[in-house]
User: Which sequence fits this backbone?
């Protein structure tokens, strides 16, 4: 070893297209192709979120489950920080010591947000039926943030103190962001791949009898894609670390682009698109019941919550009856939360009032007054 975080093999030659694309600047404008091809899909996704923002806001108000808001917030946070990184990287000179340091810090920051989201989504998927409350969600986010912080601090330290020779640019005398070095990248990718493949095996092992596993196919497809991505990434890093194969750099380039460009849209499509696109969203994660009657895969309500089948129009998302939006999932399981009948009537949809539905505001029943007069 040469005292750097990588292998003792010679660096990949700069003539390699897969390395050239990482630092080539368009017309010496500091706008690198690598930043541009990551910026474009993230910018398009932000545009998509902006167009659908009003409808998403109505749907989020219509549900008392905090899990959807959590996913939506994570999606927005990831895509915004990715755009900021691309924009700043296009304005600083990475060949200068300060510019190169800023560029690496931004890469590590993006990795922190994406990794925290990645782990949180898997935990929510595996234990969603047991943590549909704000306190449990906060605990998960705190735990995953601490793990992600430890990961990214290690990665950033390796990047700054022990940069990988394979990402050194001799002609410009600076180092590209090397994801902590090929050895670190290989090890962490392999660990995550093993974890994801283990999750995929859970429904097929005897342990499934003791776990409330999701039955939604979309969750397992999400895990499978991450498992394949990490496994491919580990192979590419291994080729660079021990095989001296320039093709390994092309492999990790592709996996890195997929992760930093398309991971956030994948989270949205897997866990939020159905919720935001239909008037009667189905359950995010269905679970195998551990009782005699299995849970129907087509169930349209969240665990421990009322059904969404009463949702009709956009205005109904705001003016819901007390037995849907205002139920307390934190303190009650079977019944509904008591509510003043006058307040309950005020929450009724204008559409419902216009359609001639009666307002139950606690008025005396017909004949009540006559009966009292006769008794007197």
Assistant:
């Amino acid at each position: 070893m040469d005292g750097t975080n990588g292998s003792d093999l010679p660096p990949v030659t700069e003539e390699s297209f897969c390395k050239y694309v990482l630092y080539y600047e368009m017309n010496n404008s500091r706008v690198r192709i690598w930043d541009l091809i990551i910026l474009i899909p993230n910018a398009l996704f932000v545009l998509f979120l902006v167009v659908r923002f009003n409808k998403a806001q109505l749907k989020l108000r219509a549900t008392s489950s905090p899990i959807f808001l959590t996913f939506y917030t994570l999606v927005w946070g990831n895509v915004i920080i990715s755009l900021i990184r691309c924009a700043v990287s296009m304005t600083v000179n990475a060949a200068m010591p300060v510019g190169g340091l800023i560029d690496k810090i931004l890469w590590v920051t993006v990795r922190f947000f994406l990794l925290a989201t990645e782990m949180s989504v898997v935990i929510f998927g595996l234990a969603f039926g047991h943590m549909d409350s704000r306190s449990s969600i906060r605990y998960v986010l705190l735990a995953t943030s601490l793990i992600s912080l430890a990961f990214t601090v290690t990665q950033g330290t390796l990047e700054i103190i022990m940069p990988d020779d394979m990402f050194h640019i001799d002609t410009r005398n600076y180092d590209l962001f090397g994801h902590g070095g090929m050895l670190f990248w290989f090890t962490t990718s392999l660990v995550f791949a093993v974890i994801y493949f283990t999750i995929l095996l859970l429904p097929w092992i005897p342990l499934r009898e003791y776990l409330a596993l999701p039955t939604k196919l979309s969750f397992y497809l999400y895990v499978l894609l991450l498992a394949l991505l990490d496994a491919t990434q580990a192979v590419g890093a291994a080729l660079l670390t021990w095989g001296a194969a320039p093709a390994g750099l092309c492999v990790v380039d592709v996996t890195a682009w997929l992760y930093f460009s398309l991971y956030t849209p994948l989270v949205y499509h897997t866990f939020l698109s159905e919720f935001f696109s239909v008037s009667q969203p189905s359950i995010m994660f269905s679970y195998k019941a551990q009782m005699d009657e299995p849970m129907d895969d087509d169930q349209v309500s969240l665990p421990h919550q009322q059904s969404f089948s009463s949702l009709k129009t956009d205005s109904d998302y705001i003016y819901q009856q007390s037995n849907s939006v205002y139920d307390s999932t934190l303190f009650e399981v079977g019944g509904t939360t008591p509510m003043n009948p006058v307040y309950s009537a005020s929450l009724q949809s204008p559409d419902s009032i216009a359609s001639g539905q009666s307002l139950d505001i606690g008025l005396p029943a017909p004949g009540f007054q006559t009966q009292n007069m006769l008794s007197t």
In short: The chain is about 55% helix and 0% strand.
